[in-house]
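Hello forum,

I keep getting stuck at the same step: I have a sequence, I want structure tokens, and every attempt I make locally crashes halfway through. Rather than fight my setup again tonight, could one of you with a working pipeline run this one for me? It's a single chain of 187 residues.
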Amino acid sequence: MRINIIGLGVGNDKSPETIESGPRWGVNEVILSRPVDVTFDMHDIPAILSGVKKQKRRTLEKLKHQLEKIKETNTLLYSLQVWPGLSNMAYPIKAVAKRFNATYFTGSIDYAMALALYKGCDEIYLYGANYHGSHDYRYQFGGVHYWIGRAEQLGVKVVPQSHSRVMNSGVYGYDMTQGKFKEWAGL
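Reply #2:
Ran it on my machine without issues. Output:
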């Protein structure tokens, strides 16, 4: 089974429009701009809505609009806790962490990747998961690479977009990109 994970970065508009190519799992407010079948928001939503916790990038109005869209489209939401009136589930963090003996989650895409592996997918396509720019993305870069490594260890194919920083660095000691190295090494 192929899972398409859609982030907020450049290229998320290239994600599949229909479910024929596999379920589309979006993070945070992706649901406002792209069709998704499942969405993940691993922030403390009650604290944000009450004003106790602020977010740098997302406004309160955008969060409210996101929750309205989830309700309107009856899209499954994975979050930290169950919300009355929404089609949602608390993310199965204990089961996922136990299955992989791992607690390395630096962003919502990590949670989506880990759940895809937990559910037994055999391909993960990443859209809009570029990790260019802000401090938050630099912080989250290690987590996505960790889960890509876990996926590859399980034999799961991971396909990032060509412009993404994910899996796109050169191979140390060799003057070639990851793709060229794989071709050269016969992988």
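The chain has a mean pLDDT of 85. If your local run keeps crashing, start a new thread with the error log.
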